[in-house]
Amino acid sequence: MPERRVTMADVARKAGVSPTTASFALSGRTDMRISDASRERVLEAARELGYRPNVTARSLRTKSTQTIGFVSDRITTTPFAGDVIRGAMEAARERDNLLFITEAGGDRAAESSLVHALLDRQVDAVIYASMFTRYVTPPKELFGRRVVLLNCLAPGFDAPSVVPDELEAGRDAARALLAAGHTEGIWAIGGHQAVPATPEGIIAGNERMRGLEEVLRAGGARLDGVVECDWDTRDGYREVSALLAAGHRPRALVCLTDRVSMGAYQALGEAGLSVPGDVSVVSFDDQDIAAVLRPALTTLKLPHYRLGRLAVELILGEGPLEAAVHRVPMPLQDRASIGTPATR
Amino acid sequence: MPERRVTMADVARKAGVSPTTASFALSGRTDMRISDASRERVLEAARELGYRPNVTARSLRTKSTQTIGFVSDRITTTPFAGDVIRGAMEAARERDNLLFITEAGGDRAAESSLVHALLDRQVDAVIYASMFTRYVTPPKELFGRRVVLLNCLAPGFDAPSVVPDELEAGRDAARALLAAGHTEGIWAIGGHQAVPATPEGIIAGNERMRGLEEVLRAGGARLDGVVECDWDTRDGYREVSALLAAGHRPRALVCLTDRVSMGAYQALGEAGLSVPGDVSVVSFDDQDIAAVLRPALTTLKLPHYRLGRLAVELILGEGPLEAAVHRVPMPLQDRASIGTPATR
DNA sequence: GCATCTTGCTAATCCGATTTAACAACGGAG
DNA sequence: CTCCGTTGTTAAATCGGATTAGCAAGATGC
């Protein structure tokens, strides 16, 4: 049975002052003249009693619960996207905030219900997050509220977005290939926007391809072909097998995600081709498999942690939120899957 | 600018009754005689105004915030353990509760600070979770509180624990091998408790091995050897390579975790041995790689979702919490890595 | 016809803080 | 000696609900 919590009234009584004085002393407000002696006695009493303010009670008056709601479609289940939550959480903690984490599973009704549950608990702000970078329409309950969109964009919805810089990542993939000397026999596996589950289309594929082609072209290289397929291991395996069976001999593969890379590794291995000796591979996302594949995969990392952190930093910043798009760099994880082009 | 929230006073005014009557009508209490007419008017007014009770304000009086705190060492970052959170979250939602998710990163001071932050917000209960199944000592702030231990055990701490049934999983691994006809040439890779980062020792390794050996022996089979190593891909690769280099010819490998299995696959592949033609592999955990390895890995799944769900169900159950240990079955994911023993 | 019960409703308090308005006590100016 | 401005402090109101105690009006009992 937890003993009754110490209240401010207890502190005031022990310090021999009124609750009002205790409140001012504890909140450290200077506009409300408290003698040093009184302040000291209150602080001392609070320390001795182990007083901690009841945030819930305080919020009734101040309207601030120091609490942020986090609504996502499926983000907690996505491999490694837990880093988004960790980034958000740590940034929140640094400013004495806590996070309500919720997941609607893509269900609009569940989403509304969750947002209501959050608002009923007086959250100060809401982070609306998506598993894939895509266009969304936030539930109407969020209109006019303090919101940051995480990993998604909502034209017409007045809130800042935080997204990975996919375009620049595409460019960096091209730069990495060019730097190793690749100018021909380059294939892209995974295509532009091949995830069937997202009708709005995912942004990642398009922007990665755009950046890739732009820099390749500028560097005097070209893409031999683009294979459209789902972003999973099975499809990567099948498409690369088919490519090889058709007689093509790629020197470099740009896989649109690590899962596809893993499938590509399997297909190349079965064909007796080595990475990066015969074929270089550069990838995107840096999922957990990327570092344990052999050879370790060179990939452009989704900056999960920084995405989560930036979202919270924006939300807890002063002043109104501007409807800008914040792009977070995707750092190159330079490992072992890119080599100099194989000589024929 | 969100317009002022509708309060119960607004509803009462619109319905032409006192706030007291509105409160009773809305809470549906039968012990406090409200005429059907009044009740109907209040409900109608609430509906029209879109009234939602302020949970924060209510909790000031009732002491219940319908909110649960979740404290873990690193669980949000563990691959796929997001399922724990999802299970907990969904169970919470079904009973109109929300979850504060926090992560202390193994830091005792941070842990205390987080628990305080939770208690300051008047959480009704706390789930104390660990990434690995192990012994823990919860922070003193949690003593006497409503707590459920998730994936950990704390002797002397009066709270229920929810853990995977590792012992039975070990037995099931043995049964799967016996059923396929394996009785000799069986090696265990990963050993008893080889994770260096957990000084308390992890329970999983020991119990898995115990169940494995027990059923193997009862079935007239035996373990040719146990290789102790870290639970990661690199070590699995190195140890299995060494095993083969030493001239051993295992017919079945029991890998203590999927990461080790992945390393084993790599080593076996390099040695020209096929799975399951030459060597069967059975594993534990069912991480995300298990299903995408080729051949797909047969493994005993860590029941993340059900662990999280059960913890919340216990916490939101009626009455006091008993200090019992709840073991959740680890279902066999029967895929393609076990075959009949190779003939010499 | 008067005392007693029900029935239906509401005034007043409380929960734990913050904040506004006001009030003593004191010192200096005139 | 009075007036006024500081300084330090506190009573009271407030936030949005839940709950206790009590109060009218009508029904019932004898």
TrEMBL record, chains A, B:
KW Transmembrane (keyword) present: no
Keywords of this entry: DNA-binding, Repressor, Transcription, Transcription regulation
InterPro entries linked: HTH_LacI, Lambda_DNA-bd_dom_sf, Peripla_BP/Lac1_sug-bd_dom, Peripla_BP_I
Originating species: Streptomyces lomondensis
SUPFAM superfamilies: lambda repressor-like DNA-binding domains (SSF47413), Periplasmic binding protein-like I (SSF53822)
Record-given protein name: Transcriptional regulator
PROSITE patterns reported in the protein's UniProt record: HTH_LACI_1, HTH_LACI_2
Domain HTH lacI-type: 6-62
Organism domain of life: Bacteria
Keyword Repressor attributed: yes
